[in-house]
């Protein structure tokens, strides 16, 4: 993994979590949307936070596709799950929400999961099987 | 009956989300490293390659199905049921899809990582 590839993974995390946070902030300040007031969706689209959130999610999709072009799905999904942790931090410091001990336990589990997958290779199907390596050593 | 509809929505969301992720991953794998492709052929060639990929559009279609199915599920049941169940099950379904359809080598380390993240998401979304 090169620095550029780590930056792509980081951009998936940041675009995803900031996009969700901007959308949440924008929807809090928009008119309520229900089955009788579906037209309020268009009012929400005029909110600057919603607009920034939508553009952030475009950035998320572009960086997510770039990440999948060089890494396995089972690497990208757990590695980018750190965005849940970023969301918790944003909800504390930006949205001023209370975070319970149970949520902190969830953050700890995600950090351990991300640490486990980040220590391994990003692409596995190109790796030779252990038996192939042994045969290559013997033939050399 | 309402419980049945709720779980039908959750399983539709999980299936569609996993299918979407697997198809997008398959499309991107066929195209290859986008950074290297852009350096060789330029930005517009990358866009043309992406827009001509039927598998990619299939993946985006399933992602849209997952989004709307999740919305319908939320209109029938509480967020505390639909959110954790669909998020956690999607992680496991993605790992299975990656193993059997993308033939990724999902070793013990990745299974443990998936299970840890799955438990973490359950704890975060249920609280």
What percentage of residues of chain A falls in helices of 4 or more residues? over 70%
- Helical content of chain B stands at over 70%
Tell me the number of helical segments of chain B per DSSP (H or I, 4 or more residues long).
6
- What overall geometry of chain A do the principal axes of the alpha carbons give? globular
Distance between the termini of chain A: 28 Å
Which secondary structure elements does this structure contain, and how are they paired or packed?
The complex is a heterodimer of chains A (about 140) and B (about 130).
Chain A: H1 3-28, H2 40-44, H3 48-70, H4 73-80, H5 82-93, H6 101-118, H7 130-139
Helix pairs in contact in A: 1-3, 1-5, 4-6, 5-6
Chain B: H1 2-31, H2 34-41, H3 43-51, H4 54-76, H5 79-100, H6 108-126
Helix pairs in contact in B: 1-4, 1-5, 2-3, 5-6
Describe what is shown at a glance.
The complex is a heterodimer of chains A (140) and B (127). Chain A is an all-alpha fold and 140 residues long.
Overview of this protein structure:
- The complex is a heterodimer of chains A (140) and B (127).
- Chain A is mainly alpha-helical and 140 residues long.
- Chain A has one domain (3-139).
- Helix content of chain A is 73%, strand content 0%.
- In chain A, helix 1 (3-28) packs across helix 5 (82-93), helix 4 runs antiparallel to helix 6 (101-118) and helix 5 (82-93) packs antiparallel against helix 6.
- Chain B has one domain.
- Helix content of chain B is 87%, strand content 0%.
- Chain B contains six helices and no strands.
- Chain B has helices at residues 2-31, 34-41, 43-51, 54-76, 79-100, 108-126.
- In chain B, helix 1 (2-31) packs parallel to helix 5 and helix 5 (79-100) packs antiparallel against helix 6 (108-126).
- Chains A and B meet through helix 3, helix 4 and helix 6 of A and helix 1, helix 2, helix 5 and helix 6 of B.
């Amino acid at each position: 993994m090169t620095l550029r590839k780590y930056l792509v993974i980081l951009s998936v995390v940041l675009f995803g979590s900031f996009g969700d946070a901007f959308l949440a902030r924008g929807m809090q300040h928009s008119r309520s949307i229900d089955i009788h007031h579906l037209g309020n969706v268009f009012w929400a689209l005029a909110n600057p936070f919603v607009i920034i959130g939508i553009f952030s999610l475009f950035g998320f999709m572009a960086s997510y596709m770039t990440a999948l072009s060089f890494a396995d799905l089972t690497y990208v999904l757990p590695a980018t799950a750190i965005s849940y942790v970023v969301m918790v931090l944003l909800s504390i410091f930006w949205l001023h929400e209370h975070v319970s001990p149970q949520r902190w336990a969830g953050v700890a589990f995600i950090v351990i999961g991300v640490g486990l997958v980040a220590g391994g290779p990003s692409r596995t199907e190109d790796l030779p099987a252990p038996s192939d390596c042994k045969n290559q050593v013997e033939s050399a | 009956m309402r419980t049945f509809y709720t779980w039908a929505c959750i399983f539709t969301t999980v299936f569609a989300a996993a299918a979407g992720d697997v198809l997008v991953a398959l499309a991107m794998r066929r195209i290859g490293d986008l950074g290297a492709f852009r350096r060789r052929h330029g930005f517009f060639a990358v866009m043309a390659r992406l827009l001509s990929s039927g598998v990619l559009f299939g993946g985006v279609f399933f992602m849209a199905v997952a989004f709307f199915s999740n919305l319908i599920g939320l209109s029938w049941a509480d967020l505390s049921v639909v959110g954790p169940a669909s998020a956690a099950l999607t992680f496991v379904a993605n790992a299975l899809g990656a193993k059997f359809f993308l033939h990724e080598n999902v070793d013990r380390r990745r299974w443990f990582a998936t299970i840890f993240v799955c438990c973490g998401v359950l704890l975060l979304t249920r609280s």
